[in-house]
Design a protein that fits this description.
This protein is α/β, with parallel strands linked by helices. It has twelve helices and seven strands. It has helices at 2-41, 62-71, 172-183, 189-197, 205-218, 220-231, 281-286, 317-326, 332-351, 359-385, 393-403, 405-408; strands spanning 146-148, 155-157, 235-246, 254-264, 269-275, 292-296, 311-315. Strands 5-4-3-6-7 form a five-stranded mixed β-sheet. β1 (146-148) and β2 (155-157) form a beta hairpin. α10 (359-385) packs across α11 (393-403). The longest helix has 40 residues, at 2-41. The model is unreliable at 53-73 (pLDDT under 50).
């Protein structure tokens, strides 16, 4: 009898454990479904309005207002609406923006009919019009006369001038425009081909692709200069994003590639480093000689830089905040509490964006106001970590934040 009771007890415990896991899985799937629906149909902003903001003062006027309304008698008011004028006088127009002074001015004088020498000019009306002459294709024909030396019969001819791509018919100006069209204005090459066809110049698509590919090699020195300036920054953001890459060996198929992006936010410069992998080899190679502060989203491939004494690894509070924001359907109360702490920190950061603040003043404000909030937040995280399921959205958000606390602060 006792053995049967023990077996039933163990079976019941096992079923309870399975039930908890299934409930957690259902909750996780519901959250994922809600996130997918939000991505497709919902707003992309992550605005949080605190219901009990600690800095918000309660004025206690609600009850008083209700009393005033109750004590007032109801009075019916009749009024007549005035129909607005059909053609109201518009306000004074501020005028068009002045056209830039650096543009060439072509003067076109329009004389009135009947002007005689006896008339005296008393002024003039000036109207400026912005105009465009479409770019035109033309041909540079290099002619190099050949001469023969009468005595030695040696043939003399001038050497050909240097050209960007010696065996290509495209000149420097055309190659430069192709690069701007494709990589600055994002025009597909087939559209550029169609534009040339309107001038009765037929350039095969594959030929133009080859021109662009060869022209890219010409600007590699600029890429190296950009990379040097990026790596000389004391503060870098790093992130990686996947991109589908056309497979040259299998027509119509793609493989996964990765853009590793390094942002010098001080000088507003960005470096894109394409790699076929998302592994740590990519950033390790590029940043092997970097010295400074490196801010990332907490992806574990960047952990290797924590061992480098020349690099201070930072994480992003916005990433931690997003996890609490997305965990609201799972645990509204805890999510709101965490978002409230971060909201207070963000309010302090907004207040010190004043251009009159010095760096020392900013540091002082953060020590006086932000550090106490961070200490409270850290204490709250440690307590609540023990009260939530580790695999739940709120549990993952708390664990994510605590694991990266040093880098976040």
């Amino acid at each position: 009898m006792e053995s049967n009771y023990q077996d039933l007890y163990e079976a019941n415990c096992k079923l309870q454990s399975i039930n908890e896991e299934l409930q957690l899985e259902i909750s996780t799937l519901k959250l994922q479904l809600a996130q997918i629906r939000k991505m497709i149909y919902g707003s992309k902003q992550e605005r949080f309005v605190s219901q009990t903001h600690p800095e918000q003062l309660s004025l206690g006027i609600e009850d008083e207002t209700e009393g005033v309304i109750a004590s007032q008698s109801i009075q019916k008011i009749n009024y007549q609406r005035v129909q607005p004028k059909p053609n109201p006088v518009p306000p004074n127009h501020p005028g068009r923006n002045k056209l830039p002074d650096h543009l060439e001015r072509k003067i076109i004088v329009i004389e009135p009919d009947g002007v005689t020498n006896s008339m005296k000019k008393i002024g003039e009306e000036i109207t400026e019009e912005l105009e465009l002459e479409p770019g035109k294709l033309f041909v540079n024909r290099y002619v190099r006369p050949k001469y023969v030396q009468p005595t030695t019969e040696q043939i003399i001819i001038a050497p050909m001038v240097d050209r960007p791509l010696p065996k290509v018919i495209a000149g420097a100006g055309l190659l430069a425009q192709l690069m701007i069209d494709k990589y600055v204005d994002h025009l597909p090459i087939y559209r550029i081909c169609e534009r040339f066809k309107r001038d009765n110049v037929n350039i095969p698509y594959n030929t133009m692709v080859d021109w662009v590919g060869q022209a890219i090699n010409l600007i590699l020195p600029l890429y190296e200069v950009l990379k040097k300036k990026i790596l000389n920054s004391n503060y870098l953001h790093a992130d990686e994003t996947g991109i589908k890459v056309l497979d040259k060996d299998k027509k119509g198929s793609t493989h996964q590639g990765w853009f590793w992006v390094y942002h010098n936010s001080i000088e507003r410069m960005v470096l894109f480093d394409y790699q076929p992998t998302r592994g740590r080899a990519a950033p390790h190679e590029l940043l092997k000689n970097y010295k400074g502060h490196l801010q990332t989203d907490g992806y574990n491939v960047y952990d290797i830089f924590k061992q480098n004494k020349d690099i201070t690894v930072l994480n992003c509070m916005a990433h931690a905040r997003r996890m609490f924001f997305e965990a609201q359907p799972n645990d509204t109360i805890r999510s709101a509490a965490a978002l409230g702490f971060i909201q207070q920190l963000y309010a302090i950061e907004r207040s010190i964006k004043d251009p009159n603040f010095t760096l020392d003043q900013i540091l002082s404000e953060r020590h006086q106001k932000s550090v106490p909030i961070l200490n409270q937040f850290n204490h709250w995280l440690k307590i609540n970590l023990l009260e939530v399921l580790p695999k739940s959205p709120i549990g993952k958000a708390i664990a994510y934040t605590l694991e990266r606390w040093k880098e976040l602060t």
